């Protein structure tokens, strides 16, 4: 007979396949770095599904001005006279890296493989050196998936490689922000499928970087935390 963990794994795999077909919406928390950012630390978007906070966040993602896809690394110049709402979503095991000040940001989204580590090291180093005048001093933010059972890193060696890289590059100790796979929240602690799931509001990991431009505006870096991911799938009250 399968135990709870086996049941959970089985349900998760089945449901993951189903929701890939349904193209479930992917989304994103909050953490900044120092005085160059409008510090939301340690603010967490932990509202239940259908609350104004969750709906507001979904609307922000939908109104993004820029997107960073899996495997991409981008630099954004906040000294330009325009507003920025940069989103990267669909985190289901990937690693996100953000270096942001009030003058610019580097945002990357990588698969958790050695190749992803190499790509991050190459692209982030190149962009950091090219735009050092706008991103120097930023505390690196690393967004990584943890296991739902014990909240330990899913791929600790991969994440540590990213940490070592950005710390050596910037001279700053990175801040780690964790998330879980949304599909894993669809079963309870006994491995049973939760009834009446709120699938319309199911929340995947994602990140959002906001700045109003001009070079002096505060930067908000927002992620989705573990609690929001867990609660978003619970039956609506």
Task: Describe, in plain words, how this protein is organized in 3D.
It is a single chain. Helices cover 31% and strands 21% of the residues. With 237 residues, it is α+β, with helices and mostly antiparallel strands. The chain has one domain. Strands 2-5-4-6-7 form a five-stranded mixed β-sheet, with helices on one face. A four-stranded mixed β-sheet has the order 1-3-8-9, with no helix packed on it. Helix 3 runs parallel beside helix 5 (156-170). The longest helix has 19 residues, at 4-22. It is globular and about 50 Å long. The two termini are 34 Å apart. Residues 1-30 form the signal peptide. Keywords: Signal.
Topology record:
Blueprint: H1 4-22, H2 52-62, E1 66-67, E2 73-77, E3 84-91, E4 95-100, E5 104-110, H3 114-130, H4 132-135, E6 141-145, H5 156-170, E7 175-179, E8 205-211, E9 220-223, H6 226-232
Parallel strand pairs: 1-3, 6-7
Antiparallel strand pairs: 2-5, 3-8, 4-5, 4-6, 8-9
Helix pairs in contact: 3-5
